[in-house]
Write a structure and sequence with these properties.
This protein is mainly alpha-helical. The chain is built from 14 helices and no strands.
């Protein structure tokens, strides 16, 4: 049962949030949001801040040039996203789906189909919250006509995501992969949870936890060692995102679509180099 404790707790947290909201008392958003902020600080940001150490494990002795190249890549991506917002958003979403699916399927020992799973998981969270998503991507430079095209296909996207979840459920049952099944159930209840909280539950509770497990087992370090190694880069990432939000968003209105848009553009630009580093690390440390 211990192997399934985390996904069970994650699913129960989502269900508890939904029940709390349905009963009427205030505070559900704040409670879940607070937990997710703690999770983001504990493993969400640190699991990506360890990229320099996974690179060191693959290519010893080249850390300085790697850090310079990493930062330059973030700057180029951010500039490119501003210049070509539609292409930037599509690139980020596609790579994120690939990355999420790879981390999950590697953890669960499933060898094929990780990109499809990533598209279904991330897509379900997004397409059932288009009323929340569209104002945010508008702040990223997505045109009104593009938003209308997406909005017109809302029902089609929702039906496709539902069919995808059903197909994944059948596959998980055939494989008797209960971790996957529990995660499918988590994704299935996200339409009743606001988009930022839904994304946070999956990103922190499932994806970041998967990444943390890969780092522990493949680097051979404890959580304490990982935190210490990540600390300076975690601080750097927080500062970088903070400066970006101040420069690109509306810091006087922290809970605004402009600030959310700026946050995800920064997160995306930082995440893309991490996605490739994570892939290379998993490939280099997977026994064939």
């Amino acid at each position: 049962m211990n192997a399934y404790l985390r996904p069970v707790v994650l699913l129960l947290t989502a269900v508890l949030y939904i029940c709390w909201n349905a009963l009427g008392p205030a505070g559900a958003d704040e409670a879940l949001g607070g937990l997710l902020v703690l999770g983001l600080a504990a493993i969400g940001i640190p699991h990506g801040a360890l990229d320099v150490w996974t690179h060191e494990a693959r290519s010893p002795g080249r850390n300085a040039s790697y850090i310079v190249g990493y930062l330059a890549c973030i700057g180029i991506l951010l500039l490119g996203w501003h210049t070509f917002p539609h292409a930037g958003l599509l690139l980020f979403l596609s790579l994120s789906a690939w990355h999420f699916g790879q981390a999950d399927f590697t953890l669960w020992g499933i060898t094929r189909g990780h990109f499809t799973w990533g598209v279904i998981a991330l897509g379900t969270i997004l397409v059932w919250h288009l009323d929340e998503v569209l104002p945010i991507i508008e702040q990223m430079g997505v045109t009104e006509s593009a938003q209308l095209n997406v909005s017109d296909l809302e029902t089609t996207f929702q039906l496709a995501s539902t069919a995808g979840l059903i197909a994944c459920t059948i596959a998980a049952l055939r494989l008797r992969n209960w971790d996957w099944l529990l995660t499918i159930l988590l994704i299935a209840v996200t339409p009743w949870i606001p988009v930022l909280l839904s994304f946070g539950l999956y990103f922190i509770g499932q994806h970041s936890a998967s990444g943390w497990h890969h780092l522990q087992t493949r680097l051979g370090w404890s959580s304490k060692a990982l935190w210490w190694k990540a600390a300076p880069f975690t601080l750097g990432a927080v500062v970088l995102m903070g400066v970006g939000i101040v420069g690109l968003g509306r810091p006087e209105m922290f809970f605004s679509n402009a600030t959310y848009g700026a946050f995800f553009m920064l997160l995306g630009s930082i995440s893309i180099p991490h996605i490739f580093e994570s892939h290379w690390f998993l490939m280099a440390t997977t026994k064939r």
